[in-house]
Amino acid sequence: MIDISLLSSRSRQLAGLDISSSSVKLVELSANDRGGLRIERYVIELLPRDAVVDGDIANFDGVADGIRRALRRFGSNPKNVAVALPVTFVSTKKIVMPDGLRELDMELQVESEAAQYIPFALDEVNIDFQVIGPAGTPGDIEVLVAAARKDKVEDRIGVAEAAGLKVAVVDVESFAIEAAFELVVEQLPNSARGKLVGLVNIGASSTTFTVLRDGQRLYSREQQFGGNQLTQDIARQFGMSTEEAESAKRGDNLPPEYSDLLRPFMDSVALEVSRALQFFFTSTQYNAVDYLVLAGGCAVIPGLAEIVGGRTQVQTIVANPFSDMAQSSKLASKKLQAEAPSLMAACGLALRRFDE
Ligand SMILES: Nc1ncnc2c1ncn2[C@@H]1O[C@H](COP(=O)(O)OP(=O)(O)OP(=O)(O)O)[C@@H](O)[C@H]1O
Ligand SMILES: [Mg+2]
Q: What residues have CB less than 8 Å from 63, skipping those under 6 apart?
């Protein structure tokens, strides 16, 4: 797991809080003595439209209210939460430095290197770094540096605090998703060791295509495509408001003609995925991926993996980061299984509880 946090204080009880454009999601995990994970509770609470736009908290009160509603359904408040910033507000870079530097010297080196590549003034960012391992050159190590816009970090902390929560960790959304992805990859044959796995995260307004091998990101690209398209079609076809369409879609209570909209949407997802693959092949040295993993709220659509797999001719599964975890008896298994692909970021954030 990438252990980088733009702000972090040691904490025992911690839940993951994912503030995304469609909803607020909370996940709490626990671990037994042998490290076995268990999902204790989770909640998905819809946000008003345009409360979060391009990862920006556009309607502060709307989001704070959404978090409060989520907490009421969650039960008691978690002591601490981990939140994430969209990667657009973070710039990351791998740098090389001599091995064996003292912590303080490393910090100084990171700062001076950061000053060269960050497009902001140093006092406008929060910086963290993590040693990745030996560099190609002997005696050197490779270090991942992340710098995030302080104002965006403060927005997230502020809105969580307004809802009565304490933020203990600020992560990067793509890192959190990749942490949960590691749990999903374990479910593939031979844990997909040495294999290229494409992760397709299909959200409400955007889709991210990332290719990873053995936990290392090789490629990532975001497209403006997502479930909002289908929601608009539903609203138009059935004369509903967007909000009505959104909740009818999630609640599975739409007339049978819904399938006339759903099928073309699924086809366009498959088309987007195959385009993303082509783009990956033409812009890198690779010409195949071994598996595709579908995540995000749209991945809950039954049969989507078959359609994407059929079009791309790549073995495709739907992400469920909880499938090897124990479950609190209070949780409805079926519902959790259905909603799991949309809980990747929240799950990855909840995993921060177990950081060393
Ligand atoms: N049962 C369902 N059937 C069809 N679509 C669904 C279902 N449940 C959720 N979705 C869709 O998934 C999308 C939300 O996915 P997700 O929670 O991953 O997005 P997000 O992270 O809020 O959005 P973004 O990443 O674009 O900011 C919405 O378009 C929603 O309508
Ligand atoms: Mg998302």
A: 19, 24, 47, 51, 52, 57, 159
Choose among 198, 193, 191: nearest CA to 217: 198
143: nearest Cα among 217, 87, 93: 93
Pocket test for ligand 1, best of 52, 250, 253, 272 (most atoms within 8 A of CB): 250
Question: 10 Å Cβ neighbour count for 107?
Answer: 13
Question: Looking at this protein, which amino acid is placed at residue 12?
Answer: R
Q: How far is the CA of 296 from the centre of ligand 2 (A)?
A: 6
- Nearest atom in ligand 1 to 339's CA: 8
Question: Residue 29: which H helix or E strand, with range?
Answer: strand 23-31
Mean pLDDT for 327-345 is: 94
Report which bound ligand comes closest to the CA of 24. 1
Pick the residue whose CA is nearest to atom 17 on ligand 1.
Answer: 297
**What is the per-residue pLDDT for 122?**
82
Mean of pLDDT values over 338-348: 97
Task: With CA atoms as reference, report the closest residue to 342 among 20, 31, 3.
Answer: 20
Could you tell me the pLDDT band of residue 118, with boundaries at 50, 70 and 90? Answer: confident
Round to whole Å and give the CA distance between 161 and 88: 23
Instruction: Please compute the mean of the pLDDT values over residues 59-70 and round it to a whole number.
Output: 98
Give the DSSP letter string of 314-328. Answer: SEEEE--TTTTSEE-
Q: How far is CA 284 from CA 196, 281, 315, 320, in A?
A: 13, 5, 21, 29
Q: Which residues line ligand 1 (CB under 6 A)?
A: 20-23, 203-206, 226-228, 231, 246, 249-250, 296-298, 300-301, 342
Residue 34 CA neighbour count, 13 Å, CB half:
3
Q: Which amino acid is at 339?
A: E
21 C-alpha to ligand 2 centroid (Å): 7
pLDDT in the model for residue 11: 52
pTM exceeds 0.90 for this model: yes
Residue ranges and CATH numbers for the domains of the chain are 15-177+341-354 (3.30.420.380), 188-319 (3.30.420.40)
CA distances from 66 to 139, 153, 170, 224 (A): 50, 19, 19, 24
